[in-house]
Amino acid sequence: MNETQFHFFFVLSFLAAGLTAFLAVISWRHRTVRGAREFTFLMVSISLWTFAVGWGMITSSIQANFIWAVIRMAMVFCTPIFWLAFALQFSDHASWLKKPNMVLLSIVPLTSLVLMATTQRHKLFLTGIDYLRVGPYLIDEIWHLGPWFWVHLIYSYALILIGDFFLLQEALHLVKQYRRQTIALVIGTLFPLLTNIAYTFHLIPGLVVNYDPFGFVLAGLAFSFGLFQYRMFDLKPVARQLLIDSMGDGMLVVDDQLRIVDLNPAALKIFNSSEDTLVGQSAVDVFATYADVKILLTGVEERQCELTVEQQGQVLVYDLRCSPIFRNNLNVGRLCVLRDITQQKNLEDELQEMAMTDALTGLYNRRQFYQLASLEYDRASRYHSPFALLMIDLDNFKQVNDAFGHLMGDRMLQALADTFRSTLRKSDIIFRYGGDEFAVLMPLTGLEEAIRVSKRLGKAESEDSVEGFMEKVCITLSQGLALFDGYEDVSLEQLLADADRALYVAKAKGKNHLSISGMD
After folding, report:
1. CA angle, 71 as apex, 68 and 75 as ends, to 5°?
2. Which of 9, 104, 262, 437 might form a disulfide with 253, Cβ 3.0–4.6 angstroms?
3. 186 φ, ψ to 5°?
4. Range(s) within the chain of domains with CATH label 3.30.450.20
5. For residue 332, pLDDT beyond 90
6. Within the chain, which residue ranges are assigned CATH 3.30.70.270?
7. Please, are residues 469 and 404 in contact by the beta-carbon 8 Å criterion?
8. Is 339 helix (H, G, I), strand (E, B) or coil?
């Protein structure tokens, strides 16, 4: 792989570190001005962040590279807290920056740092890292994310967005002549956004090195312009911060009138719209196309629902969480976070399907039989309607396995399941009860219709066969039938026992028979 990109971004990381360190020094000189001290801490954290990126590239071993990754992530954990502190200072909420509050805010970042440093033991923060060496450079190319990484991510995003909300609210009160510095800051935030999006989604083919420092260099130049040209710490700076636009989760800020006052690019992508279209619109109207979420946008506690969105022919599922935002003990709006959980929901559906069905035949399994049978029993008892329960056993199945092997037995069971599906009525529910036993639940079915269903199954199976080892194995069924008329004082367990006993009676008659409980 070409080493040019590594040389370039290695130098660039130190350039970004130096530039943000210089801004930290300049802002520290204005530390008596509201927000300057917090801005200094923010610049220091970014400086160490980009320095760790560069120095980690020239480490000689994976162990050393990992240590610099931990240092880098320590700054990543700190940056949201410094940003929130900076926003609170400039929005006249400095009283919130009390020591107990800062300690509480630091719990998740400190936990994340400990878990990151020890992740090789427990895999909670990362499950693994893929490294790439090119010439003298060693980079942690791909991170495999653990569960706590998402806790850190959501927590960091929340802090950053809350800070941005306060600055945005304060910006509404700025007079016109104070807005030049805000424009400089806004322009500065665009560069890290674009580079982070490009790096995250690999939009630049061939670039594998972390090129976030490039965005911070350009952001630093824009901040320098605001710092010197527009005297940033002589006037109130208000702008979208460095990181929020690069978030993968969609985020919206809603005011106390339920109007959208801010949102990030990820949210725009979710709603397939522009900022000009959505900002100022009623959040209730915006969400109405997807779900009734008005209840989520009111109240003083966090609320959550799932939001289904169709994008380019795909159905995506988002976890929507809305949390209240307070100012001076008043609820002034809500923070809404949209996290894509489509993959998680698909996995849950697959796991649920696996828990409900038999892997070999694709029929409902025994566990699902008891659940659905209980529901049908309750319904029939409530409305005094009949239902029938048919237990089925595959005759001579052991001999089939002994003579032709278990593969032939599996093929026979699959053929039997296919025959059930094509022969039974749409209202009938078929289960693989266990081994070579099956059960059929027939709602709203009396004796005569249940017998007809049983005969259709027996006739279909007598004509069916499974071919193997140059021979044909005929399939016959023994069946036991139990009926419930909706009025009897009999439990579901008793019905199951009656059907099971009827099945054994059918087997005792010489197999390939139907036995009806209470009649044989």
Report:
1. 140
2. 262
3. -60, -45
4. 248-350
5. no
6. 357-516
7. yes
8. strand
Tokens of 219: 């952001």
Please provide the CATH number assigned to the domain covering 357-516: 3.30.70.270
Tell me if 520 sits within 8 A of 504, measured CB to CB: no
Can you tell me the distance from the alpha carbon of 47 to that of 432, in angstroms, rounded to the nearest whole number? 63
Whole-number Å distance between alpha carbons of 251 and 320: 9
Q: Which residues fall within 8 angstroms of residue 358, CB to CB, at 6 or more apart? A: 364, 365, 432
Question: Which residues contact residue 495 at a Cβ distance below 8 angstroms, ignoring those fewer than 6 apart?
Answer: 377, 389, 482, 484
pLDDT over threshold 90, residue 107: yes
Contacts of 279 (CB under 8 A, 6+ apart): 260, 261, 262, 263
pLDDT band at 469 (very low <50, low <70, confident <90, very high): very low
DSSP 1: -
> Could you report the per-residue pLDDT of 198-234, keeping only the tens digit for each?
665 566 776 666 656 666 666 666 666 655 555 555 4
**CATH level 3 topology of 4-244:** Rhopdopsin 7-helix transmembrane proteins (1.20.1070)
Assign 456 to helix, strand or coil: helix
The radius of gyration of the chain's CA atoms, rounded to the nearest angstrom, is 33
Distance, CA of 130 to CA of 115 (rounded, Å): 18
- pTM equals 0.42
Backbone angles phi, psi at 234, to 5 degrees: -95, -25
pLDDT at residue 109 is higher than 90 = yes
pLDDT of 66 strictly over 80:
yes
State how far Cα 33 lies from the chain centre: 42
C-beta contacts of 416-420 below 8 A and 24+ residues apart = 416/361, 416/461, 416/464, 416/475, 417/361, 417/362, 417/363, 419/457, 419/460, 419/461, 419/464, 420/363, 420/457
Neighbours of 118 (CB within 10 A): 12
Span 248-350: which CATH code?
3.30.450.20
Q: Residues 449-458: pLDDT tens digits? A: 988 888 888 7
For 413-445, the pLDDT digits (tens) are: 888 888 888 888 888 888 888 888 898 999 988
Distance CA 137, CA 59 (A): 7
Q: What is the mean pLDDT of residues 153-178?
A: 67
